[in-house]
Amino acid sequence: MNIPTRRPTALLMRRLARTLKQHLTGAAAGGPVGVHQARVTSRRLREAIPVLSTGLRGSKAGKATRKIRRLTRTLGTVRELDVTLALLEELAATPDVPRTAVEEVRATVVRERDARRDVMLRRLEAMDHDKLGRRLASVSAALDAAATEPWRKALGARLLDRSRALITAMDAAGHVYAPEQLHEVRIAAKKLRYGLELAVDAGVKAAAPHVRTIKRVQDMLGKLHDLQVLQTHIGATQISGPPARPEPRAALDALAAHVEAQCRYLHGKYLSTCPALRDVPAVIRKLVVPQLAPRRSRPAKMTLARQAAAPASRTSR
Fold first, then answer.
1. Which of 104, 134, 135, 210 would give a disulfide with 60, using CB separation of 3.0 to 4.6 Å?
2. DSSP per residue over the chain, as a string?
3. pTM (two decimals)
């Protein structure tokens, strides 16, 4: 008996749903890895669902997307504070950084992280995980039942939009060290990367090298953003009251100067990658999007002839 063929897009949705469920278990325990991985998977789902559900009927795609968006926000603040604590651990092991300053800032961040973690755990506990699973399953089922693949055209259009947004953000950032504008470049790069990953999953191999290019720049800008967030915590600690003695204040000033120097260094590295990053949208337009064009149906005689010539192990899939 032949086993019904599953569409790759439906298999992708099922895989993402399983991954989210798995990491939510770790997030519900408050673990940093579970929080991070659940948040990353939620972002991938938010990119995939609107594209893959294009033209589908009978799915709960809209409701699933709204629920996942709330989940991303729920996990976001705790994840950011986890990253800040990890950076402080790195700085504590750096010879030129005063450990007293690191410990002062760390105490402030730990208090905020514990409070935010309690809020996150309550929201995760109140979430109906089974309902979310059913909504994601409905999208997978609708993809399996679809007679056409309108998502391919939708993904092509989305990649073009994301490419334009990246170039616009890079133009706005220019060559000056401007944290807010650089953060917009990071967000635009991340959204484009998730779309390209969908193209790779759809079989567009030409997209794979450019996913790696964007990821390298995104990681760099991500570290830069994390350091900028740390700067706000250092500033808050400076304002909220180191003791009147000059030693703690000088230690915090030295920590702030060290972090600022790291930010400037990463900005210089980002500028050196700009030419390669600017090339990606052109490749997407010329190579990736054309390969996402809706596939034409093959003639029935050719299909049957190839099935007859194929090994039995392949026809029984």
1. 135
2. -PPPPPPHHHHHHHHHHHHHHHHHHHHHTT-HHHHHHHHHHHHHHHHHHHHHTTT--S--HHHHHHHHHHHHHHHHHHHHHHHHHHHHHHHHT-TTS-HHHHHHHHHHHHHHHHHHHHHHHHHHHHS-HHHHHHHHHHHHHHHHH-SS-THHHHHHHHHHHHHHHHHHHHHHHTTS--HHHHHHHHHHHHHHHHHHHHHHHTT-GGGHHHHHHHHHHHHHHHHHHHHHHHHHHHHHHHHH---SSHHHHHHHHHHHHHHHHHHHHHHHHHHHHHHHHHHHHHHIIIIIHHHTSPPPPPPHHHHHHHHHHS-HHHHT-
3. 0.82
